[in-house]
């Protein structure tokens, strides 16, 4: 059976889908990805669909499921490289892929993930900082 | 009333014998209908060639225009109508150029001085052939004009939808003119392709040049925005004039969470603020 490879780049897992997403492939990918996220402790997942000519409701649901699984494991998911023709078809069909974040290409996707991570950490730090500021007296 | 082989052969001889006079009369007639928009020499040349075409067709015993021997005549006629169509002559002016051939032939026959009943019969038969030729000209004229119109429509589509880069990572589409389904499709494809090519995460759709926004136009714009979002780019709509804003609200069009700005400058400022916020 065909499998989708999962590549680790820094703190990000890159999944490039280049084959038709059939039920079996999709399920296998979900399983593999969950394993890899836990094994590597990565906080970001990029799914590259620039090689996909057709994105139907099934693929859309699969992507949403993967995003959901990743979220539970504390990893953000970004879908990158959707072709214009695919986007137009999805809009014409009235599918808007809810719950999926997108970026134009892998580079912008990595930027997006880095930014989100940075913001999250920032907020984590800001929280206690702000709470403590009034308590700590100025020297 | 089809031309018999005999009649055709007789006319071929007449056309051959009186070619000079015939072409002169014909050219005069045509020149008077075109009111000097084509030079006499040009007409003379065209008519000389057409006369040869008619003569060849008749010498080949052509019953009508579809025959083998009339092939050259057909080619000449379509050539004539296509040049006339491109030069901006009307359909009537083009067809009359061919009809005038009948008058020229009549004048030639008058000059022969041996007219009788059979000549009349011959003439009517020839007349049918000329009518057919003129109709053929008319047809090709219309065809050429339709091709012209189709070409122009395509050119208009090409011209009217430029996608310009405003800033690093920001592209704009200034929409000018009415947005119908065909144009909306072209705009959408062009914009999305540019987003991919330039990897710009922001697009501004400026509708200053759109005369009216109805539900259909709004629908097209919304589709474009949603498609761009699916690809990971954000769209801002700008250039909404006061009347347009009123129409949008009156029609109950919902732009949802899509950013709308009054001017292109506002939209650009907004995008730059967004990028600087993200890139801190």
Short description, anyone?
The complex is a heterodimer of chains A (139) and B (280). Chain A is α/β, with parallel strands linked by helices and 139 residues long.
CATH superfamily of chain A: STAS domain
Instruction: Give the count of structural domains of chain A.
Output: 1
Q: What kind of sheet is the major sheet of chain B?
A: 5 strands, mixed
Estimate the helix proportion of chain B, in percent. 55-70%
**Biggest interface between protein chains, with counts per chain?**
A-B, 23 and 20 residues
Task: Give the CATH topology of chain A.
Answer: Transcription Regulator spoIIAA
DSSP summary: helix tally of chain A: 4
What oligomeric state is this? heterodimer
Low-confidence stretches of chain B: none
Mean pLDDT level of chain A: 84
Helix content of chain A: 40-55%
Strand order of the largest sheet of chain A: 1-2-3-4-5
Contiguous low-pLDDT stretches of chain A (5 residues minimum) are: 127-139
Secondary-structure-based class of chain A equals alpha/beta
Task: Decide which structural class fits the backbone of chain B.
Answer: alpha/beta
H/E series of chain A: EEHEHEHEH
Protein name (chain B): STAS domain-containing protein
Pfam families (chain B): RsbRD_N (PF14361), STAS (PF01740)
Keywords (chain B): Phosphoprotein
Domain STAS (chain B): 160-271
Structural features, described:
The complex is a heterodimer of chains A (139) and B (280). Chain A is an alpha/beta fold and 139 residues long. Chain A has one domain (6-129): Transcription Regulator spoIIAA (2-Layer Sandwich), CATH 3.30.750. Chain A contains 4 helices and 5 strands. Chain A has helices spanning 23-40, 57-72, 84-93, 106-132, and strands spanning 6-9, 12-16, 44-48, 76-80, 101-103. Chain A has a 5-stranded mixed β-sheet, with helices on both faces. The longest helix of chain A is centred in the last third of the chain and has 27 residues, at 106-132. The model of chain A is unreliable at 127-139 (pLDDT under 50). Chain B folds into 2 domains: 5-155, Globin-like, CATH 1.10.490; 164-278, STAS domain (Transcription Regulator spoIIAA), CATH 3.30.750. Chain B is 68% helix and 9% strand. A 5-stranded mixed β-sheet of chain B has the order 1-2-3-4-5, sandwiched between helices. The radius of gyration of chain B is 31 Å and the shape is rod-shaped. The termini of chain B are far apart. The mean pLDDT of chain B is 84.
